[in-house]
Every structure is written in structure tokens, then in C-alpha cells.
Amino acid sequence: MPSSAALFLLLAAAAGGQTIVLNRDSLQPYQAASHGVEPGGNAQGFAYSIALPEGRYRVIVRLGDRTRAGDTTVKAEARRLMLRSVRTRKGEEVERHFLVDVRTPALPPPPPTAPGGDRVRIDARDAQEFTWDDKLTLEFLGQPSVRSIRVEPVTAPAIFLAGDSTVTDQYAEPAASWGQMLPAMLDDRIVVANHAKSGETLKSFLTSLRFDKLLSAMRPGDWLFIQFGHNDQKQQWPQTWVAADSTYPAYLRAYIAEARRRGAHPVLVTSPERRNFDAQGKIVDTLGDYAAAVRKVAAEDGVPLIDLNADSRAIYEALGPDVAPTAFNDGGKDKTHHNSYGAWLLASAVAQRIRDTIPALAPHVTTATFAPAKPPTATQVAIAPSLIHSDQRPAGN
């Protein structure tokens, strides 16, 4: 339950503009088609859900307490970081805004005689997440001090993310990916819609109808960030393997064409490298042909490039073999997937590349300048953990 003296919810509902006002004493567990507190809360945080149709929403939170200081981190849906460590003094009240994408698995059904489906092919893990449902879920973490929440529909451009486990909104601590950190680095005039999924490839993202779902929500002026490669290169996965010199760039170009046909702007992202050091303390290349293919397509097709492969190598080498494991999942045993610290570093690199190379998006970046060769320490990047923990590795490891 919330630990602040009072919690008020002011919900401007999408249908009819209805406003609901609640005080802390009347807060109830979440019920379908309503709103309330999710199970599992404790002194370090709680989750609150609001039934909403899919769409893009502005969330306005008022933080602070008359009787104590607060330190509030806010995450949305499957642990998308929205606000990091907003500190309030006793008696102080502040207001913060951010945008959230809400979606369900439903797709516009094809005609009876046409191939396709009416739902994204979600799996058991997806069904556990606060993503593919009919509600908006907000986590308030750290020393949360929440006075009010207001949610209202918004018309704003979106950055869609298509990718794999190194991009997706990871379901549980301690795993995390750069895509779920990016929202906290942008202003409240653009929304991040992370459709990436652990274990996905350029091919499987199509066959699971995830790309169809993404495209169904895409509008002119939106952006599509495309980052695949970790799983596409696996020849032991014969149904989804693509060759770096032929089929991989061909599929990338198909994604680019689909975005452009809808008036959206494609952006290519090279995959972050795995954490394998040689004897000289340099990162061993395991994705080179695929990263090179992305760079080549970007240059030939006039697509902005975010070279996260190069930046990740610089980050890991700057940390060194002894410290770099502290940025990775499973206490560093996982050499592919990150924890919140590592995800924040990679997202910082992405944000900096946006600032440096995409003029139309640069004004939306709010974080300080980031130099991959001089990453901050884990202490400097402390992020309040979410309520859900799991020792299961992300798919595709």
C-alpha cells in the first residue's frame, strides 16, 4: 500500500472524460475494468493499475508528503523507467509529466479470405507482464511519496522499438534492457512504444505478428528503431537464421520500407556486443559481420544509424574485465543481458547518438552528455528495483 499520507487519483478517462477521485482509505485491490493496487506491494513500493483502452497517454503525478521526505522512482507497464529518484523534502510537492504507450494483443482482423490473425502470438511470459493487458500499471518505488495521478489521452509522436532481449522491457529484476530505460531520458512530448521481445529475430518478429501490431499503431511522423542480430546470426536456429551478406540486409530493408510507406522514420541500431574480453582487455568481436551489414544498409539507404555495437565495446572496455560484470544480469554470469546499471549505460549511449545524429529527435533528449569511454559508476546510476524478481534468464541467451 502507498506509504504517503494521502493518495488521490484524478483520472480523466478516455471515454467520456470521467474524473474519479479516491483517497487512501478507500483504495482497493485492482479489479477488472476499474483501478486499484496490485498485489505484492511492500515498504519499498507498490503498483497501481488503471483500466484503459490501448493508446498513448500523458501521466501527471504529484509527488511529496506533508509529514516526511520522499524519494520516488516511477516505472510503467513492464518496468519502463519514467522517473528516476525524484526527491522531495518534507512538506514539498512537485509535479512531473511523462508519456506512456498502452496496448493489448488485439489486431484488426483480416478479411475472412485473407491470411493473418487477430492477435499477437504472446507466450506465457508475456501473459505475466503488465504490458499485454487492458490497463495501465504504474510502479512507485524507493521511498514513494505520491499525492495524485492524472491520466489523459494524448496526441504525440512515438518511437517504436523492434528488437530482441537486449532491447525489450524485461519482465523482472535483475534483468533490464536499454529500451526500458530510454523513456526516462526523453521529454514529455514523445512516447516510447517498446515492442521488442526476448528471443526474437527479424523473421520471428514477423511470424508472431508483433510487427503487424507495431505497424497497426504507427502514424505519420513516428519513428521506428530496428535492432536485431543476436539471434539472427544463430545458424543452429535454421527457421530464423539470416546471412549477414544477403538475407539479413534484405529483411532490414523490408522493415525500413514498411515504416516509410506509413510516413514514419526508420532508424537502424547495431546490436550491443557480448561481454567477452581477450587477454589485452579488449572486447572480442562476435557480431562484426552483422554490425557491418547494418552500417552498410544505413549508409546506402539514407537511414540514421545508432552504432550501439561500437559504444557498448567502449563502455565495457572502459569499465574493464573486473568491473564490467557489475553491469550485467545474474551477478555478471550472463554475458549478454544487462541489469539496470548496464541498461542505463546503453540507453545513455543511444540517447547521445540521438542527440548527435538525429536533429529532429535531439530536442527531446533530456539527459546529460554521455561519453561511452567515461561511463558513470553503478553508485551514480542507482535505480530503485522493481517488485518482481526472477532467476530465469531472458530467452535467446
UniProtKB/TrEMBL annotation:
Domain SGNH hydrolase-type esterase: 163-342
Keyword presence, Hydrolase: yes
Pfam families listed in its UniProt record: Lipase_GDSL_2 (PF13472)
InterPro entries, A to Z: Galactose-bd-like_sf, RhgT-like, SGNH_hydro, SGNH_hydro_sf
Keyword entries, A-Z: Hydrolase
Database matches in CDD domains: Rhamnogalacturan_acetylesterase_like
Similarity field: Belongs to the 'GDSL' lipolytic enzyme family.
PANTHER family linked: PUTATIVE (AFU_ORTHOLOGUE AFUA_2G17250)-RELATED, RHAMNOGALACTURONAN ACETYLESTERASE
Protein name stated in the entry: Lysophospholipase L1-like esterase
